[in-house]
Predict the structure.
Amino acid sequence: MTLSRFPFVGPSATLAAFVSQLELAAASEATVLLTGESGTGKTTAARRLHEASARGAGPFVAVNLAGLSPTLVEAALFGHERGAFTDAHRARTGLFQRASGGTIVLDDVDLLPLAFQVKLLRVLQERVVEPLGSQAPIEVDLRIVATTNTDLQSEVEGGRFREDLYYRLAVVALEVPPLRTRDADLAALVPEVIERVCARVGVKPRTVSDGALDALRAHPWPGNVRELENALERVLVLGSHVPEIEAAEFEFLGDACRGVADELASRALGHGLTVDEITHAMLERALAEHRGN
């Protein structure tokens, strides 16, 4: 089986270390928690983990919890019997059952309502589900992967996430690296993004000049791979009559960064932080992201 590559393309040590950890996790049946900033590719990492596992031939079900209202979460995941609630005109198989034999991904697991978290804990512990309106537990054989872009430990401390559930989900916790730590990957990643964008929006592919690639390496990519894809789509559409992308076409990226800097400065001042405190925090974070390098 060919594993999903995008957006995990490139030679950087940061990416290599993450992919190695992901493949080690795939060789087990352990529950995995994928953390990382928005746009880094957490759901795609979960798909790669599934494909590399013994469950790779089974179903892969990704659940966007942000797109489900709190009142629909239980019915969607557990399913329901006919007449279990108003408008339940027929029985429905839940997503946990549909994923049996494979992997289910709970995207944005931090958004789970507290009342439902204890029910997820039972699934993790006993591998059974009980559809709404039914009193007969159903066994499910699946692997659970959860993703989040928040600090779940802080959510636990704030009483918004169950501590016992956190430890059940974070048996193996892996952080998907942000794009700013992968500048060595851009030369390989950008052509793949261009190919994807051109196929989707129907424009001609363009090559990227060395200067344009340097401009992309200099950008911090707060929106990660998703931001890169959007930026390339913009220049591909607006400059479709020119065969090569030049650095000047990415000047708009600097405008976005200046806005972020203003926002962060305002927040820092509001919290009474000094320049030294901010510098120290930035250095500590940079060291952590680059694994001490």
In short: The first strand starts at residue 32 and ends at 35. The CA atoms of residues 183 and 217 lie 5 Å apart.
